[in-house]
């Protein structure tokens, strides 16, 4: 009696298979609003980095993991492996003026814009970094950015004790 055992044969394509390119970019703009409701200072738009964690979450979930906007005082250049702000200062879960748009037919695209509102800190703060993520203390970051001047150089923003900080984030 003969038993036939099929052999697995891997069929390799003759031509290289090219997957479509995926481009993800984003930016932030920060505004300091005095107690009189007037904008005292604006910074941006500043390009931001989509972290490795952010890439995984962005393409895994239909909605982004952007529960919190956080600011900090760290000055290290953002890198793909970042999962937290360098030095956390404050966070906001207030996401007023949130909009999300997308195309369901080729060419596919998605955009999301949110405004994070930070209450006055009660004491003067210098902030240099911003992140978006799921953690209340600047962790589980999907996005990280340093505040920059018009020349692209990192800057510190002086957030006064009685000012409201508004940060618009687009991806």
Secondary structural class: mainly beta
Tell me, what's the shape? elongated
* Count of distinct strands: 12
SS field, number of helical segments: 1
**Low-confidence stretches at least 5 residues in length (pLDDT < 50)?**
none
Strand order of the largest sheet: 2-1-12-7-6
Order of helices and strands: EEEHEEEEEEEEE
Give average pLDDT, whole number.
83
Tell me the fraction of residues in β-strands, as a range: 35-45%
Q: Helix fraction? A: under 10%
Radius of gyration: 21 Å
The main pleated sheet reads as: 5 strands, antiparallel
Give the end-to-end Cα distance, rounded to a whole number of Å: 66 Å
Tag the structure with descriptive keywords:
1 helix, 5-stranded antiparallel beta sheet, mainly beta, 171 residues
Could you please describe the fold and organization of this structure?
The protein is 5% helix and 40% strand. The strands form 3 sheets. It has a 5-stranded antiparallel β-sheet, with no helix packed on it. A 5-stranded antiparallel β-sheet has the order 3-10-9-4-5. A two-stranded antiparallel sheet has the order 8-11. By secondary structure, the protein is mainly beta. The chain has 1 helix and 12 strands. It has one helix at residues 52-60; strands at 27-33, 39-47, 49-50, 68-72, 88-92, 95-102, 110-118, 125-127, 129-133, 141-146, 157-159, 164-170. It is elongated and about 90 Å long. Strand 6 and strand 7 (110-118) form a beta hairpin.
Briefly say what this structure is.
Helices cover about 5% and strands about 40% of the residues. The chain has about 170 residues and is mainly beta. The strands form three sheets. The protein has a five-stranded antiparallel sheet with strand order 2-1-12-7-6, with no helix packed on it. It has a five-stranded antiparallel sheet with strand order 3-10-9-4-5. A two-stranded antiparallel sheet has the order 8-11.
């Amino acid at each position: 009696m003969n038993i036939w055992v099929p052999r697995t044969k891997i069929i390799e394509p003759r031509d290289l298979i090219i997957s479509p390119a995926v481009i993800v970019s984003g930016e932030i703009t920060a505004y300091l609003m005095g107690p009189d409701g007037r904008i005292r200072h604006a910074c941006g738009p500043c390009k931001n980095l989509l972290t490795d964690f952010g890439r995984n979450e962005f393409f895994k979930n239909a909605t982004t993991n952007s529960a919190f906007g956080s600011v900090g005082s760290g000055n290290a250049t953002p890198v793909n492996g970042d999962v937290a702000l360098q030095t956390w200062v404050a966070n906001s879960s207030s996401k007023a003026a949130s909009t999300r748009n997308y195309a369901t037919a080729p060419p596919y695209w998605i955009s999301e814009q949110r405004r994070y509102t930070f209450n006055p800190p009660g004491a003067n703060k210098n902030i240099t970094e911003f992140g978006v993520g799921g953690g209340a203390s600047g962790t589980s970051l999907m996005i990280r950015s340093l505040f920059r001047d018009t020349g692209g150089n990192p800057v510190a923003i002086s957030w006064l004790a009685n000012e409201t900080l508004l940060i618009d984030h687009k991806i």
